[in-house]
Amino acid sequence: MKELNEAIRKWGKAIGKDVVKVDMFLNHRIDTALIFRMGEELADRFASARPDLILTVEASGIALALACARALGNIPVVFAKKGSTVVQNEEMVTSKVYSFTHKTENTIRVDRRYLPKGSRVLIVDDFLADGQAVRGMTDLCVQAGCTVCGVGIGIEKGFQSGGDTLRRQGTDLYSLAIVDHIDEKGNICLREA
Ligand code: G4P
Q: Would the pTM count as exceeding 0.85?
């Protein structure tokens, strides 16, 4: 997506060889016009999949999920919560997600009431790296008896395994921008469509 690629080129900062910092428009400060354009682009791509709801994970996925849900005609956004809770019961579906970026394991959870059995779910997230968050959200959908009808991503890190694995598994995955690699000088190199 042209506008997103431009924002990454203008504001993105490489941290080492594998982290793309985009706090200026996505992860700390949000560029409202851009996030709604991103949401529209994902909505155009996935409208024919007829999602009943969008599933994302707190925190940074929520803004893009909301923008996309709005463009899909105000379908609900459900965000998986992280960490444990006092109320753990069979009403809750949970999955363990290991983050290679943070080297931590999180439990993500959603109340079954918000993932009604038989729903068609579009998974949306801001970043795709190794795909653990998407795997965990897919697991929640399976436990709740829902169908994942697509995965929409803001920025995919093409040099990590998540995108290739999901495509190989036949997932309908669409990423608005793909970072091919970070070069020796710290330039963020984008994969052009
Ligand atoms: P994975 O789900 O694809 O396997 O990714 P991973 O566990 O490695 O990523 C964990 C967190 O780090 C996620 O957010 C993800 O969005 C974010 N992340 C991964 N790589 C990058 C990157 O290069 N740049 C930025 N800006 N974020 C990245 P999170 O920890 O759940 O944080 P938040 O949503 O609460 O902000």
A: yes
